[in-house]
Amino acid sequence: MITGLIPRGFTWVIAERLAVSERVGGSGFQHRRVRREEEISWLVRGAGITDVISLLPATQNVAAYRDAGLAVHKLSLGPEVTVDEAEQVYSLIHKVMAKPSTKVLLHRETIDDSVGGILAGYLVWSGMVEQPVLAVAVVQEILKRPLGPEGRNLVPGAGLP
After folding, report:
1. CB 72 within 8 A of CB 66
2. Which regions of the chain are under pLDDT 50?
3. Angle at 21 between CA 15 and CA 22, to 5 degrees
4. Contact assessment for residue 2 and residue 45, using Cβ atoms and an 8 Å cutoff
5. Is the entire prediction scored with pTM above 0.70?
6. Closest C-alpha among 105, 55, 97, 51 to residue 80
């Protein structure tokens, strides 16, 4: 039996390769060290995560990830993600996933429109999904939430006029 806690919002976007979750350990006033340790334990042992891409503006959890043997890739994003920043994230995801055995967790404080847009955008940018509208629909289904204008604007070819 695997110990640990599944991070909030954890789901595979690309089966056994790219996952997303909210900030490990909870966000803001809800963050707890013990919870963070339990969630990291589950990520390593339960999901087999090897790498974390953190989009948090600061270095929260970086030392804890490294202590658990995870490779950490940090790209600080502000509250409003630009198309240029999203493209930097696509490149980073692509670089990290270049090794076939890599299992990546991408996270931000919460799974918001920007995260959804980045995920859908990556599917288009990488060529995994050709049509932007289909990538948006796929990510909405995976995340179980609609993707608003802020997120759609980050998807190549799906932005609003």
Report:
1. yes
2. 1
3. 175
4. yes
5. yes
6. 55
